[in-house]
């Protein structure tokens, strides 16, 4: 009976994994198809619904070596912005979370509740005020408009606070008795203990900025400064949509995130578990 239940469980898990991976597999194989073949077998049950009949690298060549849409430059732009935002988020939000978790100051519960209330505000509601602020500061069409407004993450503060709250107060007291200042305690004791949570927040932040589309579309006008998701959308126009190039571009843009997640997967799962966030 137990063997049957275990077999049924693993079979169900494999089916769910196959359903989840099927669109990705179709995207990767479709990126090697000519445009004329892309939807030719979509209504059939033959193996060619996934496996290309005419295998070609032309879609990747058209994407990577395009002079009109310099895709490698778009990847570089996105890496720079996402990396800068991630570093700033980890530094600023870890300090704020440590203050809310371990320091005593006036109005701390009220301030924390105010911060948490910002989590229920949809991002679309703040688009117009943020755009007007960027306009008044003269930051439109610059990377400052992409990096600086994203430095504060309310969710990041909440998540790290949950983790920092589990650090024993005795450990901080021992560091203070050894002569360590508060910044030294934070850098030498707290942050090393919070590596899984920091990596988890870093992955979430990097992925969120890597996939950002609406905000870069609004504040960046220079085509050569644009982010990767906006660049992928540029393959679709009033003249038509080049789905083969879109699939190739999406496959390329997925590889860095996939490698990053696979490399840091162990820390990501550990950070989610230890920070008290269940899902």
Mean pLDDT: 85
In CATH terms, the superfamily of the largest domain is MetI-like
Series of H and E elements: HHHHHHHHHHHHEEH
Instruction: Give, in spatial order, the strands making up the sheet with the most strands.
Output: 1-2
**How much strand?**
under 5%
Short structural description:
This protein is mainly alpha-helical and 279 residues long. It has helices at residues 2-30, 58-64, 71-102, 108-117, 127-137, 144-147, 154-164, 169-177, 182-193, 195-210, 214-219, 228-233, 243-274; strands at residues 236-237, 240-241. A hairpin with a 2-residue loop joins strand 1 and strand 2 (240-241).
What does this structure look like?
The longest helix has 32 residues, at 71-102. The chain contains 13 helices and 2 strands. The protein has helices at 2-30, 58-64, 71-102, 108-117, 127-137, 144-147, 154-164, 169-177, 182-193, 195-210, 214-219, 228-233, 243-274, and strands at 236-237, 240-241. The chain has a two-stranded antiparallel ribbon. A hairpin with a 2-residue loop joins strand 1 (236-237) and strand 2. The chain is globular, with a radius of gyration of 23 Å. Helix 3 (71-102) packs antiparallel against helix 10 and helix 8 crosses helix 9 (182-193). It starts with a helix and ends in a 5-residue tail after the last helix. It has 279 residues and is mostly helical. The model has no long low-confidence stretch (mean pLDDT 85). Helices cover 66% and strands 1% of the residues. It has 2 domains: 1-55, no CATH class; 69-276, MetI-like fold (Orthogonal Bundle).
